[in-house]
Amino acid sequence: MASRIKEFFKRNKVGSANNEEVENYLAKFGLNSNVGKQQPKSSNANAQGLAARSRLKYFIKEWVMSTNEDQYYYWLSIISCAFTYNLLCVIARSVFFELDNGRFWYLWIFFDLFVDIIYLCDMFVQSRTGFLEQGLLVRDIKRIRKSYLKSRQIRIDIISVLPFDLLVRPIRSCPYIRFTRLARYSRFADFIGRTETRTTFPNAFRVCCVVFYIVVIIHWNGCIYFCISEWIGLNSDSWVYGSKNIQSLPEGIEDTLGRRYVYSFYWSTLILTTIGEVPPPYTDLEYVFVTVDLMVGVLIFATIVGNVGSMISNTNAARTEFQAKMDGIKQYMALRKVNKQLETRVIKWFDYLWANKQTLSDQKVLKVLPDKLQAEIAAQVHFETLRKVRIFQDCETGLLSELVLKLQQQVFSPGDYICRKGDIGREMYIVKQGKLEVVADDGVKVFVTLQEGAVFGELSILNIAGSKNGNRRTANVRSVGYTDLFVLNKNDLWNALKEYPDARKLLIAKGREILRKDNLLDENAPEEQISPEEMTEVLFSKLKTVQLRLARITSEHTSAKMKLIKRIETLEAQLKQAQQHETNSSLQFSM
């Protein structure tokens, strides 16, 4: 027994030591551990209660919603569902009395009350929805509430939520009183606009919206048709719904609520789609209603055709532009009598671009965005790719963020040479997708295969002094299939390095180290050499200095010359005066 007790305490001691090690390890990363700790249930309950009260206090006193948040969009979706319920059900319940006063009439009361509660909650949300002032979101609840109470929207919201129908319900069912609920259409329209902006399939969403609007119009028109039929009198003639209208109620078909609505919807569809295979009208009212319906149907048909045509053209806009470019290349090759083999390669290259959705360059797509957003998107897409390059691994983030904007994507066809041995290196390449082969001069022997993520040509764009290869390519690189490459131009790199002199020194040092490992560096050469571009800039700056000095000397010479001319003119004038005075004196003396 004593041995078992000792063993029990020993296990607990070891367990507590392990727990302490786990806590110390997690504490290094700012994490908490509850290993081996058991909080009292009462303290947990008290803590949860305090947290709930603090959240409720924050919600009542400080909570403000922004129109740019996802919460606001989700709330708009809820209020839109409530609006759609009223849009479809109010007209149907107002016309088909059996629907409103049937077996499940109490469900309508429940749904109406539920939707009205959503409308009331929407008023609270609107009183807590911040607005922009000088580009900043106003979060002062008093100012937001004051702005909402002074707006026109508060009147519309109050009218749309007055519960007259629930007050009158015990006396008489009046669902048409709920037509005021449709005043919340602005929320529904806002939801549609935001969804069209957020969705990745805007054209498909627009088609769904058009179909929804058409169904709603047909639904309302069908309900109005049945309302007119009841007002004129069912079975009064062959146009209204009833037994005299064989199309609506053939012999042997029971007159039910479902039959009434289905035929009304069918009749409305035929009229509004201008098919018109319905019984002709008889009374003046029927003629007026059918005429108006036919006119509305023409407008709806034109709207459908216009919207669908616009959607199709928008959907095919990229394809049309791409096809125009392809046709232009085909015409050029036919005019210049390019051989069929090369023409086939060009066409296959275009097909590959279209199949892989690479018809637009990153620069063209992102051109509409401000520079800051362009940099963020480019950094998110290409930053890690650039980090894989050996010479860029230790560079500062600012330089890499600037270089990602310079990366350009190029697609090479099977058998294309990206570079040949001895070519001047003006670009470096990063393999995004596909395979490349480093081959011998004969094009048969393969030394190595480059796959996704491989980088080559980075040393030839650094102008490293002492490189035994200079800026020449040292290998033949050929594309195996279709290959997507990221290309960084030499000029873009050096333009970026002007603002980062420390990064430039680091890149040169890393390049020299790589060349030294491969025994391709002349140690006697200076560590840096001036590139032709830099030499040109230096010469231009010196030329500007000489021009400024020459201009200053010229202006000084001109100024001195003018002063000298004025002095000579003054001396000549004084000399003339002296000579004239001397002449006059001699004349007086002779007389």
Automatic annotation (TrEMBL):
What is the membrane topology noted in the UniProt record heading this document?
Answer: Multi-pass membrane protein
Subcellular localization, as worded in the UniProt entry: Membrane
User: What residues does the Cyclic nucleotide-binding domain cover?
Assistant: 391-505
Q: What is its main location?
A: membrane
User: Matching Gene3D superfamilies, A to Z?
Assistant: 1.10.287.70, 1.20.5.300, Helix hairpin bin, Jelly Rolls
Question: Molecular function terms in GO for this entry?
Answer: cGMP binding; intracellularly cAMP-activated cation channel activity; intracellularly cGMP-activated cation channel activity; protein-containing complex binding; voltage-gated potassium channel activity
Q: Which superkingdom does the taxonomy of this entry point to? A: Eukaryota
- Transmembrane segments annotated in the record for this chain: 72-93, 105-125, 204-228, 287-309
PANTHER family linked: CYCLIC NUCLEOTIDE-GATED CATION CHANNEL SUBUNIT A (PTHR45638)
Annotated protein name in UniProt:
Cyclic nucleotide-binding domain-containing protein
Q: Which organism is it from?
A: Syphacia muris
